[in-house]
UniProtKB/TrEMBL annotation:
PANTHER family xref list: SPERMIDINE/PUTRESCINE IMPORT ATP-BINDING PROTEIN POTA, SPERMIDINE_PUTRESCINE IMPORT ATP-BINDING PROTEIN POTA
Pfam families registered for this protein in UniProt: ABC_tran (PF00005)
Keyword set, alphabetical order: ATP-binding, Nucleotide-binding, Transport
Protein name: ABC transporter ATP-binding protein
Gene Ontology MF: a single term: ATP binding
Domain named ABC transporter: residues: 23-259
Highest rank taxon of the organism: Bacteria
Length: 348
């Protein structure tokens, strides 16, 4: 997979720009002209590295799907540009069939699948009949990569959500695109299957050099799967970096809340914990240490069972803190506790 397309020039006036990341956006905007104008992507700059998994993460309505459609060429930039291997992405005005030829898009739902056909035929039908032996071997190889070879003779309609998702991905990959675009692809997959599928996707990236660009609003999904994160808020990219970097050293409180459900405190609230800061700070839940103590100033207001840990809501007159209790211990609502902050992040 991921053979280099030597040329991807669809826009006659275009000149290839050298030295850019695989996909590169500059000052890229898109405004929808509905009954009012909505700028869904607002002057964003980004670079996407080849052979990696990049996730675009943000709240619903932040512009993730619009950005993905700009990258695929389904939408026209209102201003700025987006390039693939240095060439402008062709859009509907440049190209009859929408979608960049080196990319494939897997969206939510299974609209592209023929539910009443067999798994095998859903994949094989994507390949030409000019070389039947190749058609057979490529179909087999792709089913094998997605670990659904044993389902080849089943109707798609009879499969579970997770299996259908694997068929949809196999169908997108059988023609060996260089980039796979996925819009909230794991929504309909049970948590237990999701983890296995994500790890299999990582393996495919490693084995083939495929580049994946994934849209998600689920932090647990992207933290485990992505090499690189792009955080979107209100149509803008507010930061880009590795999952560990953005988890431990976010520069925006939005990122800290999104990835770590971090406690966000004003400078005054921070002072009441003995932390002096001129800026807003974030304290991850796992960094709030607490001890039962009759002299403590915090009260356990609520205890939320989360399985192997509990989330405690602690408050005093100034603030509320969420903290993690792990391993589980005997502590009850109404207990007084002292609080010790192990680590905090300062925002810009
Ligand atoms: P996300 O994928 O992050 O949920 P979207 O990119 O779908 O966000 O949407 C971003 C904004 O653009 C939202 O305010 C949404 O209502 C608006 N929007 C998306 N698609 C259209 C459209 N076809 N026409 C008008 N507005 C749209
Ligand atoms: Mg969306």
């Amino acid at each position: 997979m991921a053979q280099q397309t030597s040329s991807c020039q669809y826009v006659p006036t275009d000149q290839q720009r050298i030295g850019l990341p695989l996909i590169n956006g500059e000052n890229l905007s898109h405004t929808f002209h509905a009954h009012q104008d909505i700028t869904a992507v607002n002057t964003v700059d980004f670079g996407i590295t080849e052979g990696k998994i990049t996730a675009i993460i943000g709240e619903s309505g932040s512009g993730k799907s619009t950005l993905l459609k700009l990258i695929y060429g389904l939408l026209e930039p209102s201003s700025g540009e987006v390039r693939y291997r240095g060439w402008l992405i062709p859009t509907r005005k440049d190209k009859l069939i929408p979608g960049h030829p080196a990319m494939k898009l897997v969206s939510q739902g299974f609209d592209d699948l023929n539910l009443y056909a067999k798994v095998w035929d859903n994949i094989a039908s994507q390949l030409p009949n000019t070389d039947l032996a190749l058609k057979e071997s490529k179909t087999r190889e792709t089913l094998d990569r997605l670990k659904i070879l044993h389902l080849a003779q089943q109707r798609v309609a009879d499969l579970s959500g997770g299996e259908k998702q694997r068929v949809a991905i196999a169908r997108a990959l059988v023609n060996e695109p260089e980039v796979l675009l996925m819009d909230e692809p794991f929504n309909q997959v049970d948590a237990a299957f999701r983890d296995a599928l994500q790890q299999d996707m990582r393996q495919i990236v490693e084995d083939t050099g495929l580049t994946i660009l994934l849209v998600s609003h689920d932090p647990t999904e992207v933290l485990a799967m992505a090499d690189e994160l792009i955080v979107m808020k209100d149509a803008r990219i507010i930061e880009q970096g590795s999952p560990t970097k953005l988890y431990y050293e976010p520069t925006h409180s939005y990122t800290a809340q999104l990835l770590a459900k971090s406690n966000i405190l004003s400078p005054d609230q921070a002072t009441s914990l003995g932390i002096s800061s001129k800026q807003t700070i974030g304290i991850h839940q796992e960094d709030v240490d607490f001890k039962e103590n009759p002299q403590g100033t915090f009260l356990v207001k609520d205890i939320r069972f989360r399985g192997f840990y509990e989330e405690l809501v602690l408050n005093n007159e100034q603030l509320t803190l969420h903290a993690i209790l792990h391993p589980l211990a005997d502590i009850s609502i109404g207990s007084k506790v002292t609080v010790d902050i192990k680590r905090y992040v300062t925002f810009e």
